[in-house]
Amino acid sequence: MKSQSNPICLCPLDGVIDTIGKKWGLLIINEIGNHGKLRYNELLSELKGISPSTLASMLKEFEKEKLVGKEIFREIPPRVEYSLSTRGKGLREAIVPLLKWALKKGNYTVHCSCSLVKR
Amino acid sequence: MKSQSNPICLCPLDGVIDTIGKKWGLLIINEIGNHGKLRYNELLSELKGISPSTLASMLKEFEKEKLVGKEIFREIPPRVEYSLSTRGKGLREAIVPLLKWALKKGNYTVHCSCSLVKR
DNA sequence: CAGCATCCTGTGCGATACTG
DNA sequence: CAGTATCGCACAGGATGCTG
Predict the structure, then answer these.
(1) Is B64's Cβ below 8 Å from some Cβ in A?
(2) Sites in chain A below the pLDDT cut of 50
(3) Is residue B3 pLDDT above 50, yes or no?
(4) What distance in Å separates the CA atoms of residue B52 and residue A20, rounded to the nearest whole number?
(5) What is the mean pLDDT of chain B?
(6) Residue B5: pLDDT band by 50, 70, 90 thresholds?
(7) What average pLDDT does this structure show over B94-118?
(8) Which uninterrupted H or E stretch holds B44?
(9) Distance set, CA B63 to CA A56, B57, B85 (Å)
(10) Nearest CA in chain A to B37
C-alpha cells in the first residue's frame, strides 16, 4: 500500500501557525499547563527572557483564541490567574508527538535533562 | 496519578521551532511529502505566494537540518528534485495530531474542503 | 501586582532583476 | 530551470517607564 505519500492538508492550521509558531507561543501554553494555574509575574519569571510587553500581548491573543482562561481576583494587590482551556489542554497534548520526533536524532533517542515527555 | 497536569519539557524543540515555526516551514515539508518528489519550480507554483528567495533559503535550511534530500540531475535544462528524508517524513507524521486538534473548534469537528487528514 | 505606552532593533519575507 | 542578489517594509519582540 501507499502509506508513503498519503496526502495531508494543512489548511486547518491556517491561523494557528501565527499563534503557536511565535517564539514564546508553545512555551507559554506549556508552562501554564505544567502548573495548572499561573499568575502573570510567575510566568514572567518562569519563562526567563520574555519581556512583559511580549507576554502581555501573547496572553491577550491566547485569550482571544480561547486557549487560556483568565480569572481576576479583585484584591489588593490585584491577583490574576491564567489557566488552560479545554482547547488549550488539547493543544498541549497535540504537540507531544512532535516532541518525541524531535528527540529522535538519527536512529538513537536523546534524553532530555528535564523530567521530559510523559510515557 | 493526574493525567491532567503531567509536566512536559519543550527543550527538545529548541532549534526546531526556528525551522517549523516559520511561515512556510510546514507548508514546504508537507507539500514535498504529499508529492514524494518535487522540483524547485513546482514547489514555487504549488505554494502560491512564496517568493523564490524565501523558498531557496528555506530549502537550504532544511537540507542542513537533514529534513529534505536534494537530487541534482546534470542535464540541460537542469533538473533538481527534492524529497523528504526519513526524518522529514517523521516530522510530517508528527504534526497530524496537531491538525486533528486544529479541526476541533469547540465541540464540533470542522471539515476541510481539501482531501484532508488521513483516518 | 498586573499590565499598557513608547521607542528601537533585528529579520522574515515579498518583489524584482539577473546569472549559470 | 534553478536558483542568487538587492532592496525595502512590516512586524515580532526587547527595554524601559508609567499607571490603576
Answers:
(1) no
(2) 1-3, 115, 119
(3) no
(4) 25
(5) 88
(6) low
(7) 75
(8) helix B40-46
(9) 36, 10, 9
(10) A5
The bases of strand C with some atom under 7 A from any protein CB are: 1-7, 12-17, 20
Q: Does A78 touch chain B (CB under 8 A)?
A: no
CB contact under 8 A, B8 and A94: no
How far apart (Å, rounded) are the C-alpha atoms in residues B6 and A89? 11
Give how far the C-alpha of residue B95 lies from the chain's centroid of Cα atoms, to the nearest Å.
9
Give pTM, 2 decimals: 0.89
Chain B residue with the nearest C-alpha to that of A110: B12
In angstroms, the CA of B14 and the C1' of C15 are apart by 32
Angle formed by the axes of helices B96-103 and A96-103, to 10°?
Answer: 170
d(CA B32, CA B48): 14
* Half-sphere exposure (Cβ direction) of A116: Cα atoms closer than 13 Å: 9
CA atoms of A28 and A64, how far apart (whole Å): 15
What is the four-CA torsion angle of A18, B35, B49, B103, rounded to 10 degrees? -30
